[in-house]
Amino acid sequence: MIYTVTLNPSIDYIVEVEQLQLGHLNRMKRDLKLPGGKGINVSRVLTQLGAENTAMGFLGGFTGEFIRDFLSKSSVASDFVSISDDTRINVKLKHGDETEINGLGPAITNEEAQALVAKLSQLKKGDILVLSGSVPPSLGSDFYKRLIQVCKEAGADFVIDTTGEALLQALKDKPLLVKPNHHELAELFGVTIDTKEDLVKYGRKLLEEGAKHVLISMAGEGALLITDNEVYHANVPAGKVKNSVGAGDSMIAGFIGTFALTGDVLKSIRTGVASGSATAFSDDLAVKEQIESLIPQVQINEWK
Fold it and tell me: Active site residue: 127, 157, 161, 249, which one?
């Protein structure tokens, strides 16, 4: 079983206007409400791929009920902790360039936090826990560390998709996969990365610190997968990019969902890149048919 954790989910309220005039009445051309949160995105794409999974985290208020209902109607299994505060709303305002206004997120009590830890005690050896996204300030900066410890005690694997110190701290616990993009990798080590050689050099540092697989997304230039023995490059399928939100989460879902079923890293990176691309070419997250149509276009080459 794969479990995903989203500590600070949201409703993403996408609003499109022809022109934006500050201080005046503006009318929407189109709007859309979607569940937001990196772990939730991973679960939605895993479900499309037929990989058994459960979405977990915290949900509260009428906004939390919207997300629960949406996931249920999408056949995504979930087991969220109910909290007293409302789940946040993030506004994505599209008027040419996109402007984002993100909610602060709810205050989570110690009792609510402990309830999630207790739910994760069900983890078993062979399970995979995916930890993605930001941590609400009320939980403290070491909450991921607490969940990783629960995972280790159960003998389960974990994937972590975060940045900065939280990622560096998690490496010593040997995550199954980390997925920085090329900008995040540069920021992590305080360097400028100009070449693929630089990407491989600093990607290998993540392996040396404990990661089992390092997947580096490079936007239109594809992705690199770095393992103990090999470095592989995958191209990006051809298509028109409509959306960047959730593409990285979709890549993780494609990789982990396939790896959990097959243990084959080449099949995993191919499905991961196809999944990320399918989301980038869509208004929402990738669906199964889109992913399957793109898989044959993803070519994998050993990078030397």
Answer: 249
Mean pLDDT over 204-228 rounds to 91
At residue 202, φ and ψ (nearest 5 deg) are: -80, -25
- Token pair listed for 18: 């022809």
Asked if 265 and 289 touch (Cβ cutoff 8 Å), the reply is no
Which has the closest alpha carbon to 160: 7, 1, 279? 7
CB 220 within 8 A of CB 236: yes
Question: Confidence band (pLDDT; 50, 70, 90) for 164?
Answer: confident
Q: Which residues contact 289 (CB under 8 A, 6 or more apart)?
A: none
| Catalytic-residue membership of 249 | yes
Contact predicate 193/182, CB 8 Å: yes
Burial 107-124 (b: 16+ CB within 10 A, else e): ebeeebbebbeebbeebe
Choose among 111, 122, 165, 159: nearest CA to 142.
165
Residue 84 pLDDT greater than 90, yes or no: yes
DSSP secondary structure of the chain: -EEEEESS-EEEEEEE-S---TTS----SEEEEEEE-HHHHHHHHHHHTT--EEEEEEEEHHHHHHHHHHHHHTT--B-PEEESSPPEEEEEEEESEEEEE--------HHHHHHHHHHGGG--TT-EEEEES---GGG-TTHHHHHHHHHHHHT-EEEEE--HHHHHHHHTT--SEE--BHHHHHHHHT----SHHHHHHHHHHHHHHT-S-EEEE-GGG-EEEE-SS-EEEEPPPP------TTHHHHHHHHHHHHHHHH--HHHHHHHHHHHHHHHHTSSSS--HHHHHHHGGG--EEE--
CA distance 116 to 247: 27
Length of the chain: 304
225-262 tens-digit pLDDT: 999 889 999 998 988 888 778 889 999 999 999 999 99
